Amino acid sequence: MQLQISTTPEFENKLRSIVRQTVAEMIPQQQTIQPQIPEFLNLGEACKLLSVSRGTLDKLIKRGEIKVTHVNTAKRISKKQLIDFMASKEV
User: Fold this and answer.
1) At CA 59, angle to CA 56 and CA 62, rounded to 5?
2) Residue 78 and residue 42: Cα distance in Å, rounded?
3) 54 and 44 in contact (C-beta within 8 Å)?
4) 3-class DSSP state for residue 10?
5) Per-residue three-class SS string for 14-38
6) Which residues contact 44 (CB under 8 A, 6 or more apart)?
7) What residues form DSSP beta bridges with 78?
8) What's the DSSP call for residue 40?
9) For residue range 16-74, what is the model confidence (pLDDT) as tens digits?
């Protein structure tokens, strides 16, 4: 089924203007939404942030490229250290 509506050019221009304004207001909101990353991550979270396997992360820790903080039996890695590590590997 097809519906035809006759409109005036003024109405069409006003409608376009409203749609553009609405879209423009929505775009900055989408760009400011960022996932919250804790200051200290467990090893699994660190793997996700670096996009590496647990084995690769273990090798980086063993070689001293990434330092681990021990909290009782838990191991944590600082977000800042991981971001700095990634920045140092840029080519």
Assistant:
1) 155
2) 9
3) yes
4) helix
5) HHHHHHHHHHHHHHHHHHHCCCCCC
6) 54
7) 40
8) E
9) 999 988 888 877 655 555 568 889 999 999 999 999 999 999 999 999 999 999 999 99
Beta bridge partners of 77: 41
Measured distance CA(33)–CA(56) in Å, rounded: 30
Evaluated on CA atoms 62, 64, 69, 70, the torsion sign reads positive
69 forms beta bridges with 76
Give the residue carrying structure tokens 């960022």. 34
Tell me, yes or no, if the pTM score tops 0.70. Answer: no
Instruction: Give the contacts of 76 (CB within 8 A, at least 6 positions apart).
Output: 40, 41, 42, 68, 69, 70
The predicted structure's pLDDT at residue 26:
77
Reported in sequence order, the residue ranges of 37-87 that DSSP labels E, i.e. its strands, are 40-41, 69-71, 74-78
DSSP code of residue 46:
H
Contact 13, 21 (CB under 8 A): no
